């Protein structure tokens, strides 16, 4: 039996171990390699072949969405399943637009992860019922594009962290970027969304159901 070769990319060893345990009980799948950050993922795909990549959206340095875009340039045929702590409402649409074959939250049941891997390895996309409903709303051409859709992926990530009450310094530490860089992103966010301060960012995120 040909096994689906999987690369797991997540910066938390305990999460990787949990995923490996789930997949170890599935006879037609094997975890071939693990990566703790985006650069490790890009290095591995240049040396090895995989059938599926499981990619965390939130990793140190460059975000999972940025790595996803690089992956699709380097190896466009490898299906990528995004695994995230964030609900579909926050990142799923962006992930699919960037080339992901599916999006699952880490709170999903183990059998759903197996089903998703099996489906995308066969060339299909894996979309949950919640995500399908979300996608349906985007089909309405008369729907005005929300302001947060004008942000880049990194700006959007910073916007959510500001809305959650994190300081510029805390965000810089978590993303392994400089305070100056985060301050620049904040300025772009305020400008693009016509907002004045962090309180208005938080209010906008709440009103648009962007926070967990």
CATH homology superfamily of the largest domain: Response regulator
CATH architecture of the largest domain: 3-Layer(aba) Sandwich
CATH class of the largest domain: Alpha Beta
Please state the CA-atom Rg, rounded to the nearest Å.
18 Å
Q: Which properties best describe this structure?
A:
212 residues, Arc Repressor Mutant, subunit A, alpha/beta, 2 domains, single chain, Rossmann fold, five-stranded parallel beta sheet
Please tell me about this protein's structure.
The protein is an alpha/beta fold. It has 2 domains: 4-138, Rossmann fold (3-Layer(aba) Sandwich), CATH 3.40.50.2300; 147-207, Arc Repressor Mutant, subunit A. The chain has helices spanning 13-24, 38-47, 64-74, 88-97, 110-121, 129-139, 153-163, 168-175, 179-193, 198-207, and strands at residues 4-9, 29-35, 52-56, 80-84, 102-105. A 5-stranded parallel beta sheet has the order 2-1-3-4-5, with helices on both faces. Helix 3 links the parallel strand 3 and strand 4. Helix 4 (88-97) packs across helix 6 (129-139). It is globular, with a radius of gyration of 18 Å.
């Amino acid at each position: 039996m040909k096994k689906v070769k999987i690369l797991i990319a997540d910066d938390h060893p305990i999460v990787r171990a949990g995923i490996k345990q789930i997949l170890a009980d599935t006879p037609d799948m094997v975890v071939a390699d693990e990566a703790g950050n985006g650069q490790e993922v890009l290095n591995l795909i240049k040396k090895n072949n995989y059938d599926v990549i499981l990619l965390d959206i939130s990793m140190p340095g460059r975000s999972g969405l940025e790595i996803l875009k690089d992956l699709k340039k380097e190896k466009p045929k490898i299906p990528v399943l995004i695994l995230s702590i964030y609900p579909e409402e926050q990142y799923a649409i962006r992930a699919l637009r960037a080339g992901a074959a599916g999006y699952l939250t880490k709170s999903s049941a183990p059998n759903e992860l197996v089903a998703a891997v099996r489906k995308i390895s066969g060339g299909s996309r894996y979309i949950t019922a919640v995500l399908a409903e979300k996608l349906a709303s985007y089909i309405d051409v008369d729907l005005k594009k929300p302001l947060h859709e004008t942000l880049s992926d990194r700006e959007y990530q910073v916007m959510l962290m500001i809305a959650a009450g994190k300081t510029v310094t805390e965000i810089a530490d978590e993303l392994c970027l400089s305070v100056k860089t985060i301050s620049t992103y904040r300025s772009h966010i305020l400008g693009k969304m016509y907002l004045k301060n962090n309180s208005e960012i938080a209010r906008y995120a709440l009103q648009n159901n962007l926070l967990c």
